User: Fold these one by one.
Assistant:
Number 1:
Amino acid sequence: MPTRPDTAGARPDGPAAATATPDAGPGSGHPTEGSGHPTEGSGHTNEFGHTNEFGQPVGRPVPGWVPRPPVEPVTLTGRTCRLEPAARHTEGLHRALDLQSHPSTWAYYPQGPLSDEPAMAAWVASLDASPTSVPLAVLDADGTARGIASYLRIDPANGSVEVGGIVLSDALQRTTAATEAMYLMMRHAFDDLGYRRYEWKCDSTNAPSRRAAGRLGFSYEGTFRNAVVYRGRNRDTDWYSITGEEWPALRAELGRWLDAGNFDADGRQRTRLDTASALGHEPVRAPQDR
């Protein structure tokens, strides 16, 4: 079973042992984006930021930027969980999400609960068929499928990717493994592939998703009103992100919290995850959470 922060034990190996194993594609790279500070010949700065040769305000330089590798199917291994391509685990995903979880698990998704394993397989296949989607199954320490999360809106040219389509079973919700799964996906995008922006989006009415985004260090960026119609109702979509500049501090804090030494023999956390202190400020919250 997944390791719950307040109920279950933790294995002795820490998050530093987490690994990423490509299942396909060109392999990993490292960030080539510069520090973001102005360089000679890159334009002038004033109180408004950078300007071009015509004196117009422009964005900061990104020296040496090149497109990043595409996100490909991958195995990500941590202390309390492992992520693998979802197509390998459709039977387990159907069991965990459709048969062993409350139907409300699917409340904020256009599909689900799914009727049988072929329906789950068809949904996962539709995600795999998209060039901007990589669905991964979240497995507990015993290798049992407990949830699904996908890389979405994959944009190698600009180094941007979204984590989304997150459906966690009742057994996985609010566990150490759930947090570690999100950490492993972030770390792969930033550290292995060199992406510079990592997105999270949710229905504006989905309070648990908004809270999860804030806890992990995502900052609210705005709301796309009347963005989607699903299940016969409107969806306003809240947008969140973590940038490459914020990632080192968040990586350190997530790694500290996930370390086995932060949990007692019963799996209870000794200290809380504190991404606000790591960033030096509270992540920007959606208006309804302020």
Note: The chain is about 25% helix and 25% strand.
Number 2:
Amino acid sequence: MRITYVKALRIDQAHMVLTYYPKTGQEPLVLDNLEGKILPASERKDLKPVYNFNGDGLWISRQRGKGVRVGKADRISLWMELRERLGSELDDDLSQTPKDETRKPGPKTGTKP
């Protein structure tokens, strides 16, 4: 699964979509809030892929659904800043949890009353 930066041709704007690769090397499926259906990349003529990334790497798009790996995702500074902010917020949320607050166990299952 990767986040793909595209140019949405119908609205002439930069846009992000989620691409899912069922198997390595296969054409990805595109999940996009501009389109009501999940479609293979080859059927999304309204999108021009620029690059895509995930936690493992960064790829520059050469053809629909295919790309050339150019390095790690940490080359995208805004992505790294977002990850840092999210990490800080999570750390802040955890530090605000009272120390004496404990989770109560749920009901036992599989036992007779």
Note: DSSP finds one helix and seven strands in the chain.
